[in-house]
Amino acid sequence: MERHAPDSRLVDRLVAWRLRIAARSPSLPQMAKTLVTRIGSTELSLVQEDITRFPADAIVNAANRALRGGGGVDGAIHAAAGPELMEELRARYPAGCPTGSAVITDAGRLPARHVIHAVGPAWGGGTTGEPALLASAYRTSLDLAAQAGALSVAFPAISCGIYGYPLDRAAAIAIGAVRAWLTVHPDSGIQRITFVLRGDDTVRAFAGALQDLDSVAGRDSEPVKEARLG
Questions:
Q1: 63 forms bridges with which residues in the sheet?
Q2: How many C-beta atoms lie closer than 10 Å to residue 91's C-beta?
Q3: Which is the CATH superfamily of the domain at 8-228?
Q4: How far is the C-alpha of 11 from the C-alpha of 17, rounded, in Å?
Q5: How do residues 33-51 score in pLDDT, each as one tens digit?
Q6: Where along the chain do its domains lie?
Q7: pTM over 0.85
Q8: C-alpha dist (Å) from residue 109 to 77, 82, 104, 227
Q9: Which residues of 12-36 are buried (b: 16+ CB within 10 A; e: fewer)?
Q10: What gap in Å lies between CA 52 and CA 69, rounded to an integer?
């Protein structure tokens, strides 16, 4: 399938706006514009913000198989949630979690009801099933969110940190997996799914994937728009 170039002006405005706000108010809670579309009854959007401060019923953590914390998003979520998050993981999931799957806990001190710990694959060149495992991590997370009655879900860019997954490929898989899940589960009850991202390159990759979704999705989705969040 031919990859369509994103609307570069829209992506550049999102990134530039976020940088201007950060420069003017570095000590204030992060606020950003969002790119937003709708698939069925669910709003799908992306925003550049700190996921540990983003209000959602379920926050997804980019975890490792041992479920013992780490760097990046994983470390930030554990630090913000407090020690009770690790205590619950050790008690409920002593064997960890396989790659491509996820487990759910309470959220500790985070502005959420649940944390879903999704284990994405480390990038090894794309020949050891990484795309299927990454898509499965997103699907399993949404399964758990729906089972928990979550109305809103916040995702990071799973596998895009230390695991080294190429951003463009990971973004396309993430957006595609979420769209496919929503198409199969139109009555899931989830009203809002937000990719809460860090880093300009990550925002650009996911914005491009969201624009691509707009070009191929057809009647089940609305055009991607720029809006304000918060």
A1: 119
A2: 9
A3: Leucine Aminopeptidase, subunit E, domain 1 (3.40.220.10)
A4: 10
A5: 578 899 999 999 999 999 9
A6: 8-228
A7: no
A8: 10, 6, 15, 29
A9: eebbebbeebeeeeeeeebbbbbbb
A10: 14
Q: Which two tokens stand for residue 227?
A: 């809006």
- Each residue's pLDDT tens digit, 55-75: 999 999 999 999 999 999 999
C-alpha dihedral, 153 to 116 to 88 to 147, nearest 10°: 80
Residue type, 73: V
Which residues contact residue 218 at a Cβ distance below 8 angstroms, ignoring those fewer than 6 apart? none
- Is residue 209 within 8 A of residue 169, CB to CB? The reply is no
Distance CA 161, CA 94 (A): 24
Amino acid at 2: E
Question: What's the rounded Cα separation, in Å, for the pair 205 and 211?
Answer: 10
User: Cα separation of 6 and 57, whole Å?
Assistant: 30
Say if CB 97 and CB 117 are below 8 A apart. yes
| Cβ-proximal residues to 127 (8 Å cutoff; 6+ apart), any chain | none
Contacts of residue 27, defined as CB under 8 A and 6 or more positions apart, other chains included, come to: none
What amino acid positions are annotated as catalytic residues?
74
Q: Which of 190, 174, 175, 179 is nearest to 220 (CA)?
A: 179
